[in-house]
């Protein structure tokens, strides 16, 4: 038998997930969540539970990557590819940084900002020097 279903995690989510499985049954699994100090019992389809239990590797990396990666429709395809590769490189660097740093670990956001700042510094210094030279040659701008 093949199970096909549509599922929405929250009522506020407009889009549904279309799920197909030849392994899962049409049943639900009960789980608990803590909300504001209270235990809340919820249910989700078995197919979703099985997917979440087996999620790892690429799925986990993609989930972490898309936290900060912006996929805009109006950006050129080659730029999407470059930003995706850059995002994966920064994520891999952050994972290695966390594994090799014992104290005062930066958050992923702070780590990403520090990398961008370090990469932009040579360009910023060149631009500042060029503007300073132009100002000396032309006199102060008004």
Automatic annotation (TrEMBL):
Residues 11-94 form the PiggyBac transposable element-derived protein domain. It comes from Homalodisca liturata. Transmembrane segments: none annotated. It comes from the Eukaryota. This is PiggyBac transposable element-derived protein domain-containing protein. Pfam families: DDE_Tnp_1_7.
């Amino acid at each position: 038998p093949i199970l096909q279903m549509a599922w929405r995690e929250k009522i506020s989510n407009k889009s549904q997930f279309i799920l197909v499985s030849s392994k899962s049954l049409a049943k639900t699994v009960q789980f608990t969540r803590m909300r504001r100090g209270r235990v809340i019992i919820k249910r989700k389809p078995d197919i979703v539970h099985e997917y979440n239990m087996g999620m790892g590797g690429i799925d986990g990396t993609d989930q972490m990557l898309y936290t900060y990666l912006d996929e805009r429709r109006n950006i050129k395809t080659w730029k999407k590819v470059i930003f995706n590769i850059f995002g994966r490189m920064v994520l891999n660097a952050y994972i290695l940084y966390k594994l090799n740093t014992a104290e005062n670990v930066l958050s992923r956001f702070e780590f990403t900002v520090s990398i961008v700042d370090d990469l932009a510094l040579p360009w910023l210094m060149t631009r500042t020097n060029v503007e300073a030279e132009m100002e000396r040659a032309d006199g102060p701008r008004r």
